[in-house]
Amino acid sequence: MPLTLLQRVADGDAAAVDECLSQYGGLVWSLARRMCPRHEDAEDAVQEIFIELWRKAENYEPDIASEATYITTIARRRLIDRYRRRSRDLDTTSIADDVVVDHVEHEKWIEVSEEAAHARKHMRQLRPEEQQVLELSINDGMSQSQVAEAMNLPLGTVKTHARRGLIRLRELLGVSEVGGAKGAGA
After folding, report:
1. Domain boundary among 88, 122, 155
2. Residue 49 is part of which domain span?
3. What is the mean pLDDT of residues 81-88?
4. Considering Cα of 40, then 43, then 48, then 49, what sign does the dihedral take?
5. Considering the domain boundaries, does residue 96 fall inside one?
6. Phi, then psi, of 67 in degrees rounded to 5
7. Which residues contact 161 (CB under 8 A, 6 or more apart)?
8. Residue 56 vs residues 10, 50, 53, 94, 101: alpha-carbon distances, Å
9. How many domains, in total, are found in the chain?
10. pLDDT exceeds 90 at position 109
11. 25: pLDDT strictly greater than 50
């Protein structure tokens, strides 16, 4: 059985490193841009993530997760560590006097959080493959092509799972096709 890309990276294959950057650079960049407000911070984060990936490539087990999932997990952990470190290093003493809590925005945030929790609860009722496709798309920001590769499924199958999952989720949430709640009339 041929070695996976990450197994080749772990073996020190320079061509595999280039392939890995080419194949997964966009995914890592999109995750970094979501968590890092400044372009320069995102670039630094991507470098840190790939350095971590080279160090941990030997720990990759293809029987447990796809390469995309493994890389996404390392990226998310590194980005969370980076965010925590940055938050801890912030000097909040000068900020505390300037902070004004906008009650309306806070209420909207709570409402959105509750809606997200409600949707997550209903996602658990989907078929496992529909749930996994939607989670990779929504939580990890993967395109349908990336999801297909990560799950080792044909693109058409991924699209079908996504569509069926969204239709079922819409039914469970009681949302009509037009985008409003069922029964919410004019």
Report:
1. 88
2. 1-88
3. 77
4. positive
5. no
6. -60, -40
7. 127, 129, 130, 132, 133, 153
8. 8, 10, 5, 40, 42
9. 2
10. no
11. yes
